[in-house]
Design brief:
four-stranded mixed sheet, two-stranded antiparallel sheet, alpha+beta
C-alpha cells in the first residue's frame, strides 16, 4: 500500500505509522499507538530488572600474622557471605617489612581455601599486587 494511504488511515484512526523494517523491499510499516507501545516496553524492562539478582563481592581484610580466633571469626563471616550467594574477596595486607615474607601470606590464604572448600570454589588464585595479596571465592554450583 502506498505510504500516503497508510498515513491517511493512521491519522483517521488517531494512531501512528511506525517503520518496522526499513531495509527490506518493500519497506514494512505498522499502524499502532506508539506511545502505548513505548510504555509497555518500559514496563517490561522494569519488570525484568526487578527479577535479576545483583551479585555482590564482600571483602575481608587480614594480615599475615592473624591469630587463630580472628581467623575463625573471618572464616565464619566468609561462610555466611557465601551462603547468602555473594562472592568473597579475601585481601591480605602486608605492612612494613612483612612484604619480605610473601610465603607466610600465601599459607594463610591457602588455609582460608581449605576451610571453605566444602562450600566455595576458588575463582582467583592467590595473587600479589603491590602490598596486597588476594583471592576470590565463589559459592559452589
Amino acid at each position: 500500500m502506498p505510504i500516503d494511504k497508510a498515513m491517511e488511515i493512521a491519522q483517521n484512526d488517531k494512531l501512528d505509522l511506525v517503520l518496522v523494517a526499513p531495509n527490506s523491499k518493500p519497506v514494512v510499516c505498522k499502524i499502532m499507538n506508539y506511545g502505548k507501545y513505548k510504555f509497555e516496553q518500559a514496563k517490561k524492562e522494569k519488570e525484568a530488572k526487578k527479577k535479576q539478582k545483583v551479585l555482590e563481592v564482600k571483602e575481608l581484610r587480614v594480615t599475615p600474622n592473624i591469630e587463630e580466633h580472628d581467623f575463625g571469626f573471618k572464616t565464619k563471616n566468609a561462610r555466611k557471605f557465601l551462603e547468602a550467594g555473594n562472592k568473597v574477596k579475601i585481601t591480605l595486607r602486608f605492612r612494613g617489612r612483612e612484604v619480605n615474607n610473601v610465603k607466610a601470606g600465601e599459607v594463610i590464604l591457602n588455609k582460608f581455601i581449605e576451610e571453605l572448600e566444602d562450600i566455595a570454589t576458588v575463582e582467583k588464585k592467590p595473587k600479589l599486587e603491590g602490598r596486597n595479596m588476594f583471592i576470590i571465592l565463589a559459592k559452589k554450583a
